[in-house]
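Researcher: Quick sanity check before group meeting.
Model: Go ahead. Protein one:
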Amino acid sequence: MPTVSTIIPAYNAASRYLDQAIASVLAQTYRDIELIVVDDGSTDDTSRLVLRFSQIRYFRRAENGGQAAARNDGARLAKGEFVAFLDQDDLWEPSLLQETVGLLRANPAAALVHCDGYQVDEQNKILHYDAAMKHTRSITQILRGDHDVATSGSLFRKTSFDEVGGYDERLRIWEDIDLAIRLFQRHRVLHLAKPLYRHRLYGHNVSRDIPSDRALQARRYFLEKHGPSCRPGTPEGQALARDWAHYYSDVGKTRLGQGQIPDARQAFYQAVRQDPLNVKVLLRLLRSYLPAR
């Protein structure tokens, strides 16, 4: 039985760096591993690329279900004591598993260990250092003790992962944050301050100023799910109000872009109710009353 099950969810990945992700797993200095690639209903040559590697266990989903569903399928297939997930366009440094396995073995009460990383461009050129402890005033950080648990930079104890039910498949974004919160609520989380993974930024994933309706729906579900644990008057409650204000402000921006002025105005009103001193939201509300140019 392998000690570590490494899982790569892949969707139309033949031309999106999957071969490099696979190579970074096979180059690990820690060798007691299995590699599972979950093909999330690809329509390109992903299967042909993966099947070139005899070391890989390949599983194909009948239809596309999103990264959370694909990762959960991989975890169900996993035989290892620990599981690690690598996104198809990210990379591991050669010692990631060697160093994280040692930490989890030495700390049996810990559910996961996560590390720092690098943000890189399409050519794998380092853009900046990504420290994994972030002290922000958002519930996404407060509820996980400021641990920014990047999917590609983490090793999970399989029993702990299974105990909390894995990834929430209703979330198409922030599913990694949601999992980290649930694990942090029950177990110890370890941080290794070394850059052991690389997260690739390119074209469509660098910036999204106006979120999609699907992303907004997922954010609303996330806030409704974790809101009950944020009591009014506490730092968590204050952060939740700010997060709701940010959510409604983004809804307003989206509705403005769609030409739905009354809906945009109502969303900005909701944002102001949550965070009355937010000048940026107040200005957006006022602009919604100005004639279109």
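Researcher: Fine. The other one?
Model: Protein two, sequence then structure:
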Amino acid sequence: MNTLTKRQQKDKQAIIDNLKHLPIVEVACSKAGIARATYYRWRKTDEAFTKVADDAISDGVSYINDLAESKLLSEINGGNLSAVLYWLNHRHNAYSNKVEITTAAKQNDKLTPDQQKAVKKALSFTGLIEQEKGK
């Protein structure tokens, strides 16, 4: 292995290590002293590097998510009402924002001619009617 290849492997590893802690390509490259263009060139030419980099970014995202959740829980423990509400809205079904649609119609009810006409008119705005005709 020549000197250039050794240095390149070392630089690639530095970027991978950075991505595992902060999954932002610009920051990882900057910390490693490598241009973003070089990173993307390596991704195009080195399939193994691309896979390892993608895995590192995934690990980094998980790390940041854990960190953010930890901070949120600290805020909840500290009595921050906004944090409490955020948690409940996003993690507890009884408090989440949701839209519920109910109907008395049975699933096997057929549409009336007026309902069929209204559905066709609505679908004509989406272009789905033309797609069905082309099939």
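Researcher: One line on it for the slide.
Model: Residues 124 and 130 are 7 Å apart (CA to CA).
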